[in-house]
């Protein structure tokens, strides 16, 4: 994947643990616009690449803004980004979308928890400016820990529903109340901790079809030990490759000179998605939608394998 050099032009503390970082090109040429809900790969000072949702105004072309929460158990990614200074250089990918505004929907419900507000923020800002019907439900432990809450109160107070201090046990009850009466043709979007999104999905599917529920997830699924894997074959462009139990599809394909892009190597960014022409994928990613997984037509080849003995793949 091609990365471009950008410069940190501004850093703003949003909460005690969250900073927003503004990026521009050195020559002043535009970075955007981008589609609401998009994310970028960010290669930090320690050469660790992570995915971050853009939370600036999608229509603004001059700069990108993303937010980073400093994790207590950071492996170097978020901690290093919190040490950045204005003028530092980073490398980023072009924006891409795993979650986007559904054009067929007539009303949109955004549900965010914690740092999951970031993709919801860009979508809310876009829909507010363009007169699209939406509401935003924001769950956070306290007001001081709710990043961008002052901005949301200022820009779209009538669309904002704050849920501060709601315990995990009470979240499902609040969600049931808030999603009980939805207008026709509503789509629901959510981002936050995995357990929270599971609750949103479970409640939402009581009122809308699974295809109308959209999740943004940057947490990798726990992978089984390689000892539980079996070897199999993959065909690509007429060539057949053996995938051993201790290697992923993408590792073998890249080792053999195949041009397959990767980024996270954890099944959360969508860079390595390929088409499945034959065979039955065993999905182990956290990026494809339920509908995409059930179709069996695409797979994330950095982590997923097969339920059979052979796959025929093509570039996506």
UniProtKB/TrEMBL annotation:
Which PROSITE patterns does this entry report, sorted A to Z?
2FE2S_FER_1, 2FE2S_FER_2, FAD_FR
Report the domain of life of the source organism. Bacteria
List each copy of the FAD-binding FR-type domain by range: 1-102
Sorted alphabetically, which keywords does the UniProt record give?
2Fe-2S, Flavoprotein, FMN, Iron, Iron-sulfur, Metal-binding, Oxidoreductase
Names of required cofactors = FAD; FMN
What is the protein name stated in its UniProt record?
Answer: Oxidoreductase
Where would one find coiled-coil regions in this protein?
none
Q: Where is the 2Fe-2S ferredoxin-type domain?
A: 228-316
Q: Which GO terms describe its molecular function?
A: 2 iron, 2 sulfur cluster binding; metal ion binding; oxidoreductase activity
Q: Check the record and name the SUPFAM superfamilies matching this protein.
A: 2Fe-2S ferredoxin-like, Ferredoxin reductase-like, C-terminal NADP-linked domain, Riboflavin synthase domain-like
Q: Which Gene3D superfamilies match?
A: 3.10.20.30, Nucleotide-binding domain of ferredoxin-NADP reductase (FNR) module (3.40.50.80), Translation factors (2.40.30.10)
